[in-house]
């Protein structure tokens, strides 16, 4: 093999012959042209006929260049294949080319190709020299550029490991990068600095007044500056540093970056310096981990409490203890606690009056906590901002409008079995343990070619007797499941029908828990299963904030309020009642339909995250605490009182909301491999949103979800700390779910472990 030498700055790189993957369903003059051209250019060439074999081949060889035939959609979907390749981590430096038909009349836009992940298109031309010239231009242009970019990873690895603090800014002095050593010496986290102008970062008063002026006039002329400078750490201390700032000349012969290398100046011996580094780190930890302490004792309780069957009452008790010390406390919760305490020592008339006060407080909208997250970790900030607000509601010039998709009818290719008995054995086999929490939904996704909802729905609805309850034929249920599933977007990496199937699975699992069964009626169970199935239908893969900022049709229709959740619920009923073939409600009487419809809408709307704390707090105050009080008073003697708490109409509503909420965001409580896969999918969806916000010039709702800088472990830790821990403590205290709490603990420790190693990825690098 002949190695090509490539110069990248001062680095000398050596490149193997190009690896090319051709994906053509059938051999024709065009594929032959490229084969010949590869041979002539001494490139290594592989040929794949199907998307599956192409992906398999790519995973094995990680080609530099992939050429996909985009001329015949009947053979395979070229854009879907491109997206699948782009979903593989190692493909970011691969160049992918679409071979397109000669345009008949109009030149089509290349935007759909670019959005799918293609780098360029090649208009079909089977002439061998044309193919050869195209390959040479690709090799010396984009492929070589990508090869150099790959070497950039090595340089960043060196920077990340360096003991010296490194800061890189743009020509306008906006901070673009700081390394871990910089974070630990200065006490800042990367996210607090990146994107800020240097002048926004507090300065030490110990420098001579005109020092900054001197430095700037030197480096703006393209000269290096070196000297002693006092920097101000996040905690306000000044630290004396030996600083070297180097301007980097780039495009157009202009200064494009400044690189600053800072070394703390220490007269004392070496050990002193390392102790200062440790101190700086612990200081950073204190600063950045205010939100981490939110787990308070819950971790300790979780790790020390017995999980055996005999320990379940002790465990439930510890869950209750955690409920009493809930860490994200709405003001209303504090008020209720004070009144409860006052009642104990009050004369009868006062106690009764306070009871009425509590009744009013429990049923009025006073539940959203005040979020003082200004000094918190940026991941928590962004998650709360991104999930719990409707965005800035700022319309930008280029308004983003969702195409009003014509609602699907049932696609003809979805010929599903007539009944449960006809489910293909391979699919039936993957669903054998669907009643277990550890059921692997991704096996079902693969076995059903990304149509898990129809099959799992058939099985679970049959287990719960939904058709009997609704008095509807199984064929109607099957058509309904198909058309609902067809309205989920398989192009979304997270909010697709596999997520719906996952939430349906968790819902069915929770419905089998003893306490839940005591609380709910058959109509509630049916409502919960239907709500889980439809709860994200037609989700565009973008958040409410994005839709509001973009002025999308949906946001305008729903007045920027619970936009997506309103759409999911409304569309579900439109689809269902539009056509008798799939109308599962056709044979139930009117009052029952009204009750069922109300319950389904209420549950789908409860999945909106702006009301998260309200739902959790109401559940704790109206159900957990009264139940705990009964248990403390007299063991299980008072079954009537327990029953009246569990089955009151208001409380049944709270149980159903809590049930679907927990099912909807139960990913961190799944077995580790499933948890990791879901984390990768939601991150990818948020990355795609950030990419689009930047392209469209929209406000970036969650800046930490930038695919180039995001730490997935940090974002997962924040999500668990902020949304998951308290909610699942409360749900576990009610429904008794030791296995989920164990998984949650394991997964939290897994993300912590990655974060402590400063890793940003889903998994640790192979040893």
Fold blueprint:
Blueprint: E1 4-8, E2 11-15, E3 19-23, H1 29-40, E4 44-48, H2 51-61, E5 65-69, H3 78-86, E6 95-100, H4 111-116, E7 120-123, H5 128-161, E8 165-170, E9 175-178, H6 180-186, H7 190-193, H8 211-220, E10 225-232, E11 238-249, E12 255-264, H9 270-288, H10 298-304, H11 312-324, H12 331-344, H13 348-363, H14 378-388, H15 425-430, H16 441-447, H17 452-463, H18 466-470, H19 474-486, H20 497-511, H21 514-519, H22 522-534, H23 544-550, H24 553-557, H25 563-578, H26 590-606, H27 612-634, H28 639-647, H29 649-664, H30 672-696, H31 712-735, H32 738-756
Parallel strand pairs: 3-4, 3-5, 5-6, 6-7
Antiparallel strand pairs: 1-2, 8-9, 8-12, 10-11, 11-12
Helix pairs in contact: 1-5, 2-3, 6-9, 11-27, 11-31, 12-13, 14-31, 17-19, 17-20, 20-22, 20-29, 22-26, 22-29, 25-26, 26-29, 27-28, 27-29, 27-31, 31-32
Quick overview:
With 767 residues, this protein is an alpha/beta fold. It contains 32 helices and twelve strands. The strands form three sheets. A five-stranded parallel beta sheet has the order 4-3-5-6-7, with helices on both faces. Strands 9-8-12-11-10 form a five-stranded antiparallel beta sheet. A two-stranded antiparallel ribbon has the order 1-2.
């Amino acid at each position: 093999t002949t190695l090509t030498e490539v110069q990248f700055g001062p680095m000398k790189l050596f490149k193997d012959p190009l690896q090319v993957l051709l994906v053509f369903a059938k051999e024709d003059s065009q594929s032959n042209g490229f084969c010949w051209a590869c041979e002539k250019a001494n490139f290594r060439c592989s040929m794949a006929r199907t998307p599956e074999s192409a992906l398999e081949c790519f995973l094995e060889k990680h080609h530099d260049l992939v050429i996909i035939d985009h001329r015949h959609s009947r053979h395979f979907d070229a854009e879907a294949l491109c997206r699948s390749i782009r979903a593989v981590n190692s493909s970011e430096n691969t160049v992918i080319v679409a071979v397109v038909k000669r345009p008949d009349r109009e030149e089509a836009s290349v935007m759909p190709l670019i959005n799918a992940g293609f780098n360029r298109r090649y208009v079909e031309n089977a002439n061998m020299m044309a193919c050869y010239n195209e390959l040479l231009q690709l090799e010396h242009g984009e492929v070589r550029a990508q090869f150099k970019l790959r070497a950039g990873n090595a340089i960043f690895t060196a920077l990340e490991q360096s003991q010296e603090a490194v800061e890189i800014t743009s020509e306008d002095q906006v901070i673009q990068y700081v390394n871990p050593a910089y974070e630990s010496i200065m006490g800042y986290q990367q996210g607090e600095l990146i994107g800020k102008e240097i002048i926004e970062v507090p300065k030490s008063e110990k420098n001579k007044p005109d020092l900054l002026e001197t430095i700037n006039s030197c480096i703006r002329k393209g000269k290096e500056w070196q000297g002693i400078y006092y920097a101000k750490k996040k905690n306000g201390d000044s630290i004396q540093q030996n600083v070297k700032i180097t301007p980097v000349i780039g495009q157009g012969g202009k200064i494009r970056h400044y690189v600053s290398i800072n070394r703390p100046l220490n007269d004392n011996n070496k050990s002193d310096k390392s102790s200062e580094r440790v101190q700086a780190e612990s200081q950073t930890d204190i600063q950045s981990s205010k939100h981490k302490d939110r787990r308070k004792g819950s971790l300790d309780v979780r790790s020390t409490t017995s999980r055996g069957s005999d320990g379940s009452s002790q465990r439930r008790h510890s869950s209750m203890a955690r409920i009493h010390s809930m860490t994200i406390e709405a003001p209303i919760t504090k008020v209720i606690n004070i009144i409860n305490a006052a009642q104990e020592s009050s004369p009868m008339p006062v106690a009764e009056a306070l009871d009425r006060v509590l009744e009013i407080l429990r049923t009025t909208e006073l539940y959203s906590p005040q979020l003082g997250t200004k000094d918190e970790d940026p991941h928590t900030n962004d998650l709360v901002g991104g999930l719990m607000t409707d965005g800035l509601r700022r319309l930008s010039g280029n308004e983003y409008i969702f195409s009003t998709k014509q609602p699907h009818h049932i696609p003809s290719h979805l010929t599903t079995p007539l009944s449960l008995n006809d489910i293909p054995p391979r699919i039936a086999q993957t669903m054998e343990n669907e009643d277990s929490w550890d059921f692997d939904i991704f096996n079902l996704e693969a076995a059903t070619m990304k149509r898990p909802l129809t099959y799992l729905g058939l099985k679970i609805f049959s287990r719960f007797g939904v058709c009997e309850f609704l008095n509807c034929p199984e064929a109607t249920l099957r058509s309904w499941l198909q058309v609902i599933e067809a309205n989920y977007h398989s192009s979304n990496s997270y909010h697709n029908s596999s997520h719906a199937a996952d939430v349906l699975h968790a819902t069915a699992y929770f419905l089998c828990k003893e306490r839940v069964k005591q609380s709910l009626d058959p109509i509630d169970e049916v409502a919960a299963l239907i709500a889980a199935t439809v709860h994200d239908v037609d989700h565009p893969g973008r958040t409410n904030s994005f839709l509001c900022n973009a002025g999308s049709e949906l946001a305008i229709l729903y007045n920027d309020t619970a936009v997506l959740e309103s759409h999911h619920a409304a569309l579900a009923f439109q689809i269902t009642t539009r056509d008798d073939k799939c109308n599962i409600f056709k044979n139930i009487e009117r009052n029952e339909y009204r009750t069922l419809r109300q319950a389904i809408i209420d549950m789908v709307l409860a999945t909106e995250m702006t009301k998260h704390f309200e739902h959790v707090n109401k559940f704790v105050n109206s159900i957990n605490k009264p139940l705990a009080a009964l248990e403390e008073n007299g063991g299980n003697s008072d079954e009537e009182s327990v029953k009246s708490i569990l089955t009151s109409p208001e409380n049944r509503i709270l149980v159903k909301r809590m049930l679907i909420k927990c099912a909807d965001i139960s990913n961190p409580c799944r077995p580790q491999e499933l948890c990791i896969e879901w984390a990768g999918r939601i991150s990818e969806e948020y990355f795609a949103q950030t990419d689009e916000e930047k392209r469209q010039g929209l406000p970036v709702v969650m800046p930490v979800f930038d695919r180039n800088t995001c730490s997935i472990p940090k974002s997962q830790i924040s999500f668990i700390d902020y949304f998951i821990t308290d909610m699942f403590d409360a749900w576990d205290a009610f429904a008794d779910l030791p296995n989920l709490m164990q998984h949650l603990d394991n997964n939290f420790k897994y993300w912590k472990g990655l974060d402590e190693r400063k890793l940003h990825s889903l998994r640790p690098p192979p040893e």
